[in-house]
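HUMAN: Ready with one sample?

ASSISTANT:
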Amino acid sequence: QVQLVESGGGLVQPGGSLRLACATAGRTFIRNYMSGMAWFRQPAGKERDFVASIRWNIGSTFYADSVKGRFTISRDNAKNTVYLQMNSLKPEDTGVYYCALSRDDFTPARIEDYDYWGQGTQVTVSS
């Protein structure tokens, strides 16, 4: 079994920055069993939307248009951890942020392509 644990959420003013982390646990050499990881977010009362993804072996990334140029997804192979650096935050970035892991080939924005999910971490952008 694989567990994903997010951290780094909180309250920040518009224009500020936050860095989220998602650590994987529960299976040795997890990197050998996964294709990629992603971040999704879900504002209150709305659907869960794609934010960014990274293919683990080659490091290629993909972003939602709404976060391009402001957010950066990255990975640490040694720690089996994925990060989301969020800059120039806006109130519309508010929501619960979830990390997800895909074991096989995946289409970045397809929720159903991801096999494991974290519990989520709240990000609130407000003055």
